[in-house]
Amino acid sequence: MKKPTKQQLIERIAELSIEHCHAHYAVTCLREDYKDEVFRYFRAHGEPYPNRHGIDYSDPAYDGVIRATAQSYERMSEAKRHRYNIKRRIDTAVRNLMSQCGEQLKRPAPAVVKRATLSGETLQ
Questions:
Q1: pTM for the predicted model, two decimal places
Q2: Interatomic CA distance for residues 123 and 66, integer angstroms
Q3: Number of domains in the chain
């Protein structure tokens, strides 16, 4: 199998970046749709715990909203998986380009941590 040229890799990265932008926007829109469905459900049926934010999927009190929004939640989750897969393909294409150009990923140097006691004595 023939290796792609540098120009082909650059074009692939650009195409995947555009695809990632579309996928990210899709996730944003589907998340808003899902949240709207949840709010509509709670307006119609009431919230089990009005002072709590979010849905506790292990709490049976939320079973109704979970069932009512299952399709919307699944669409959002699938869009997130799709976005993640595109991001992985971008990362792979970038690593292939870096490899072809002789670039290497370098681990950042560890941070210097200055430790002191409560009284202010330096421990190093």
A1: 0.79
A2: 53
A3: 1
